[in-house]
Amino acid sequence: MKQADALNQAGTLAELGTLGVLLAVARRDLLLALRRKSEVMTVLFFFVIVVSLFPLGIGPEMALLRIIAPGVLWVAALLAAMLSLNRLFAADYADGTLEQMVLSPAPLGLLVIGKILAHWLVTGLPLVLIAPLLGLQYDLDGRALGVLMLSLLIGTPLLSLIGAIGAALTLGVRGGGVLLSLLTLPLYIPALIFGAGAVEADISGLGATGHLSLLAALLALACFFAPWATTAGLRIALE
Amino acid sequence: MLTAINLACVRGDRHLFANLGFTLEPGGRLHVTGENGSGKTSLLRILCGLSPPESGQIHWQGEPIRGLGDEYRKAVLYLGHHNAIKEELTALENLRTTAALAGIAVADEEGVALLGRVGLAGREDLPVRFLSQGQKRRVALSRLLWSPAPLWILDEPFVALDTAAVSWLAEIVGAHLDRGGMAVLTSHQEVNIASGIAQFLRITP
């Protein structure tokens, strides 16, 4: 370490803590998203349009719309999340930034968490915020809309975490986009069941607590395992 | 001190090199030469720990790098073929995020001063996609100015640079060696680095 200090040419530069590195990665990805707004908008508009097409196709049968609402909103959220996944690591892989991340003194898992955090803020959070508005088209009442938002608030970070594993494993593979969908969508099934289930349970008067708790448990599990699995995938991609 | 012992590399079913070894002391530089596709980049990636060698070992200060982890990553600066910069971000933002990845905080004024030293004064706030190839390379090379790493691993650092920048870079590397640093580099150009003990390694199949 002494040798390293002696070699610091500027002498005055401060060192960042590990949390500082995580936040720097997240901030950079948010800044990039801000500069390429179209990518963020594509995901959001995809979600809005898919969800809005169903009431148009089915017609104003309120009872039917109320039944299909949780499933449609959740499936649309899954597909919208899918749409943004192949760009999660691809740009960093192509321009060499990923190599620098692997060589960073900070643990790679931490940098991956920073990237997933930014991914969720850019693609997950907007879906959560706009979902109640779209839910109105399905004649959901205020309580059900609240549960829908809450289930998406717990569920969308889960989608980003699981998706990151798939994105890392298919990195640099030709035709990776299709493979990514085949790999990730089955892993999304538990999130879909408990997320849509929570809203359905609330509508039918059973109470959403059980489903939401299980969804939160899945999120806790993914927070622990997904960065680790993603890191392993990225290292394999770079070898 | 960096020591490579009996390194071998296999890509697909091609054996690129075997029984390759060297010792690099503080103040020393190693020039790796060889034909296109002979495995120069593969060797450099093995040396920084990005990919494992087929066989053989790399030791840093007498310890195998596999066991050193972040201690070794802190000691290495790797500049690959790719510049590792983002086209949408400005030169200053690129410099600051690259530094952050290495765990170093660079303030705005410091960043502007460093970019001035690589010849990008007045272009700090321009998105990098508006810069020329050579200027992009200079943004990437600005890392050499703030990095505290004693071991520089540079893959074709002189590519796309004009003659003034080539001699500037040679000076920077020379100054690094004078401070007791080490450098491993590949280059197809003749470069005059005045300082340091030079070793040459030609990769032959």
Main beta-sheet annotation of chain B:
5 strands, parallel
Q: Approximately how much beta-strand content do the residues of chain A carry?
A: under 5%
Mean pLDDT of chain A: 89
Percent of residues in helices of chain A: over 70%
Structural class of chain A: mainly alpha
Question: What does this protein structure show overall?
Answer:
The complex is a heterodimer of chains A (239) and B (205). Helices cover 83% and strands 1% of the residues of chain A. Chain A has 10 helices and 1 strand. Chain B is an alpha/beta fold. Chain B is globular, with a radius of gyration of 17 Å. Chain B starts with a strand and ends with a strand. The model of chain B has no long low-confidence stretch (mean pLDDT 89).
In short:
The complex is a heterodimer of chains A (239) and B (205). Chain A has helices spanning 2-7, 18-35, 37-58, 62-85, 87-94, 97-102, 108-135, 142-169, 176-203, 209-238, and one strand at 14-15.
Keyword list:
heterodimer, A: 239 residues, mainly alpha, 10 helices, disordered N terminus, B: 205 residues, alpha/beta, five-stranded parallel sheet, four-stranded antiparallel sheet, 8 helices, 34% helix, globular
What's the helix and strand layout?
The complex is a heterodimer of chains A (239) and B (205).
Chain A: H1 2-7, E1 14-15, H2 18-35, H3 37-58, H4 62-85, H5 87-94, H6 97-102, H7 108-135, H8 142-169, H9 176-203, H10 209-238
Chain B: E1 2-11, E2 14-24, E3 28-33, H1 40-48, E4 55-60, E5 63-64, H2 65-68, H3 70-75, E6 76-79, H4 91-101, E7 104-105, H5 108-117, H6 133-141, H7 143-146, E8 151-155, H8 163-178, E9 182-186, E10 197-202
Parallel strand pairs in B: 3-9, 3-10, 6-8, 8-9
Antiparallel strand pairs in B: 1-2, 1-4, 4-5
Helix pairs in contact in B: 4-5
